[in-house]
Amino acid sequence: MEISAAVKKSIRYSVVQNILKHYPCPDTCGAHCCCNGQIHFFEDEVKILTVIDSEKAKKITNEGLCAGLYQMNVPCSFLNASGRCGVYENRPTVCGMYPFKVNTSGNSVGLQPCPVGFLIIRDFAELIVGSFSKSKASDEDKTRIKEEWQKSVALYEAELVDFHSKSILKEMQIPFDELEIFSMFLSSKKAKNS
Ligand code: SF4
Ligand code: SF4
Question: Which of 43, 44, 62, 152 could form a disulfide with 2 if both were Cys (CB 3.0 to 4.6 A apart)?
Answer without folding.
Answer: 44
